[in-house]
Amino acid sequence: MTSTLFLSSLRSTASPPNCRFHMSSSSRSGRPSFDSFDTICRRRRRAWESAKASVGVEPRPTVSVGPAETGPVDCGGKLSAWTSIRQERWEGKLVVEGDVPRWLSGTYLRNGPGLWHIDDYNFRHLFDGYATLVRVYFEQGRVMASHRQVESEAYKAAMKNRRLCYREFSEAPKPASFLAYVGEVASLFSGASLTDNSNTGVVRLGDGRVLCLTETIKGSIQIDPDTLETIGKFVYEDNLGGLIHSAHPIVTESEFLTLLPDLVRPGYLVVTMKPASNERRVMGRVNCRGGAAPGWVHSFAVTDRYVVVPEMPLRYCVHNLLRAEPTPLYKFEWHPESGSYMHVMSRATGKIVASVEVPPFVTFHFINAYEEVDEDGRITGIVADCCEHNADTSILDLLRLQNLRSFAGLDELPDAR
Ligand SMILES: [Fe+2]
Question: From ligand 1's centre to the CA of 199, what distance in Å?
Fold first, then answer.
């Protein structure tokens, strides 16, 4: 899925101590402590099983999205996940069935596509939806919730003009004439026509600023985590340029780390940004080993000492980027003959320390990565876990809304591994 989970603050004020929604690690072995993680998962599961929440009292709808819902509506079942939100903003108190632990205190933010139509024009793909931020706030056993549309330029233009105005994942505005098409092409290379619909993730930087992100660099938008108000475009104050980056950076208290695919000289820049700064600095560069374009990097993996840069045979295609109609693989092409690789960059030097050819693979999300060490503490390997779709690009097409909404009681999506 394209949404990302974000926990702005979660503190434990009573037993059990140190209960946090993240994986802990063992410093002795350098490998993740799965016992600790399992314990945390069991603790979370118990908490959530005892706290089934439903939409409740005192809702305060504020701004309607517009015309009546045109897609299928099934708010009681699975289809509700693929149904457009009905208000631009909403907030209210949730009724809790069971008990929410009183020590659970903090804010949970989630971002993802939430509006898939403009009037009677319906979008085709899950990834096209305009970004909807959802906030759940826990305090002393109470739960408040709200959601609000991210006011990107793409969203605002669509609401004002009642039509698509920017290029989304599978949708593009229809040029009125050949001259308009030429203008479109020119604006694409400048990035002007690309969307800034930041519907893919939400992260908190080390300095507390909260950003909604998508794969276009211009789609980095700062929001207020309390009101969900859109503060404005997050401007990277450097000269790195480029149009796209990984949708899911690695963000810690001390660093924002991401990849910038280079469509001109096929490769990737690994860049970092410190808290309280808008300037990205280059850690190093990876040159592609196969193909005339870099592979798609929706996400990537990082360990304590290394950055793992995947080079998938599902590669960006500038020609497909320019098309007004969606192609079977949208802005990508599948080139298994070009090879698949995992590049490993030292975080200390920016140098490539390993570049390994691997079987063809397709993945959206890396989950975890860690270094394996021997008894003497020497690093013997790197493990990068990802959710792999079996080298099958059909997952992209299966995420069309028509497929998702044709729910027949079974999960129709293919298994990943
Ligand atoms: Fe994602």
Answer: 9
